[in-house]
Amino acid sequence: MSELIQEWVLERNGYTCQMCGVAAGEPDPLGSARSVRLTMGHIKDKSKGGDDTPQNLRAVCTNCNEGLQNAALPKPDRIHLLAQVRRATIDDQEALLSWLLGKFGLVSKKKP
Fold it and tell me: Which residues are within 8 A (CB) of 34 and not within 5 positions of it... i.e. 6 or more apart?
């Protein structure tokens, strides 16, 4: 698969593992001294007829791709996700907002 396809998939997936949710460059959750690295994973394995098209690819960390993590965390539903954000500190909420604005290319509107 081409580097262009890989870059497109990584961008689409927000440079985040679609199995466990870690982001590229974060500390490895399994405790090693290395940072998280992302690779391409097939949604439908090539051995079962899958291909290398962007629709069949997703960003996965090396731990998930190698099967080192026992189970992927379930994706949070909207209610759970909003509850977690509300519980976060103001600094963490602002960091999340900044990340979301950057991810979607938006500009914050400040209230007077």
Answer: 28
Cβ atoms < 10 Å from Cβ of 79: 8
58 in Cβ contact with 39 (< 8 Å): no
Task: Report, as an integer, the average pLDDT of 57-77.
Answer: 75
Q: Please, are residues 69 and 63 in contact by the beta-carbon 8 Å criterion?
A: yes
β-pair partners for 96:
none
- DSSP secondary structure string for all residues of 42-93: ESS-GGGT--SSGGGEEEEEHHHHTT-SS-PPPPPPHHHHHHHHHHS-HHHH
pLDDT tens track for 71-105: 555 667 888 888 989 998 999 999 999 989 988 88
Residue spans of the domains in the chain: they are 3-73, 76-112
